[in-house]
Amino acid sequence: MATHQARKRFGQNFLVDQGVIESIVRAIDPSVGDRMIEIGPGLSALTEPLSARLSKLVAIEIDRDLASRLRNRFSTDKLDVIEADALQVDFSAFGSSLRIVGNLPYNISTPLLFALSQYADSIIDQHFMLQREVVDRMVATPGSGDFSRLSVMLQYRYKMTKLFDVDPSAFDPPPRVVSSIVRMIPLDQNRRRAANEKLFAEVVARAFSQRRKMLRGVLSAWVPMIPWSDLGIEPSLRAEAVSVQAYIGMADALHAQGVNSLAQA
Question: Binding of S-adenosyl-L-methionine: at which residues (predicted)?
């Protein structure tokens, strides 16, 4: 079969290091009956060892040529190939108790993480390879330079653990950045939720829109409505110093005052 030329428009970097592949599969630890979906199987570096341990694997591949290679290589009994953009896929169609894995293209990683969060109630876990700086932001703690809107929005919905780094030499062609493997486990139904999740997302986005400004500046129109001392927040803090729970508290306080959207101001 002809060699596949990596396509920049799809952000393709193919994992080729067998030791790294084995480490990722060990971390995922697939079982025969798992409902597993692989996003971006590429040249099947992970597809093959995963498929060998599963009754059936679903693979979502946007590249027509790679999708065709997968169909030629694996039987339909073992691999269901869906030729589509993962950003456009309705994951609810796969049912519940899903396990999702993938070496995500760096150019769509953040929007895809946000898109998948709406299906979190139907997901057991997610294991992704992403750019290291993205993973560092995902798992960052308040007060660190990496703590960001991405940190807050994903930590609101998931418990996340950075597992290990992957050197560029593990890929063909090698990317210009170091990658990392992250495990994402959705928080259960008993987690604290914002009274108005759209408003919560708006408060977080507004707070991080001007990172160098204090909260009392960037949220100036709503400062009188927020019980700062009750929430244990100093209005002189900057966005990266505030915890996920504190952001929920601010959004809930505004909601209690009749604010349904920051766009109203």
Answer: 13, 15, 40, 61, 85, 103
**How far is Cα 218 from Cα 216, in angstroms, rounded to an integer?**
6
Element at 65 (helix H, strand E): helix 64-73
Task: Reply yes or no on whether the pLDDT at 120 is more than 50.
Answer: yes
Q: What is the CATH number of the domain that holds 120?
A: 3.40.50.150
Domain count, the chain: 2
**Closest Cα partner for 195 from 134, 258, 255?**
255
Instruction: Examine the pLDDT at 78 and tell me if it is beyond 80.
Output: yes
Range of the structural domain that residue 259 is part of: 197-264
> How much of the chain exceeds pLDDT 70, in percent?
95
Is residue 125 located within the same domain as residue 215? no
Binding residues: 13, 15, 40, 61, 85, 103
Six-digit token pair at 98?
């899903």
Would 13 be classed as within a structural domain?
Answer: yes
Q: Is 1's pLDDT higher than 50?
A: no
What is the enclosing helix (H) or strand (E) of 112? helix 109-117
Give me the half-sphere count of Cα atoms (radius 13 Å) on the Cβ side of residue 132: 11
Backbone angles phi, psi at 35, to 5 degrees: -90, 95
pLDDT surpassing 80 at residue 142: yes
The 10s digit of each residue's pLDDT in 28-61 is 999 999 999 999 999 999 999 999 999 999 999 9
